Amino acid sequence: MFLFPHHAPADGPKSALFNFQSLLLVILLMICTCTYVRAVAPRLVDRNKAGFLGLFFMSARIGERLSPYVALACVAMAVTMIAQ
Question: What residue ranges carry the coiled-coil annotation (predicted)?
């Protein structure tokens, strides 16, 4: 590595931030998980509506209001992952 600094390192595991499909999967899983947690224990999600933890509240709202579209997105993601 030190002898040839212009060579890039070998492709290793990538973060979900750099792989678009993995990023979509993480977002879908977060929406589905937050929606489920809000259905089971609403106080847990509803008490944090602002700040960083507000992302979980917003994800739960997206899952509740757009549930048919989220379900279709989950099915589409499953099909693309099986097809790979």
Answer: none
